[in-house]
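Deliverable D5.2: sample structural annotation.
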Amino acid sequence: MNTILAADIGGTNARFTIWNRDAAGDDKLIFTRSYKTEDYSTFELCYEQFMVDSELRQLDSVCLAVAGVVQSNRSNLTNLGWIVDGDKMKSLYHIPM
């Protein structure tokens, strides 16, 4: 079974969902949560809160949609001052991207 994070990171909300994919390729939604981005000073703090709330320890894959231009696996969300950096996530949280 694979555990997959899909998230939509916008200027107002960060919406996270966790899916499990079984060996047959069937997906099951297991957790979803939305956060006001104004409540977090960085993307990492918001992501870490989500992981605490979901009670997950490890993900197998991650797909992020962000409200900004992505260059070299990194995006600066100008309306928030957040930087979403895929390489940093891989390193900090041991996530395959």
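Annotation notes: The longest strand covers residues 27-36. The longest helix spans residues 43-54.
The annotation will be released with the project's public dataset once the embargo ends.
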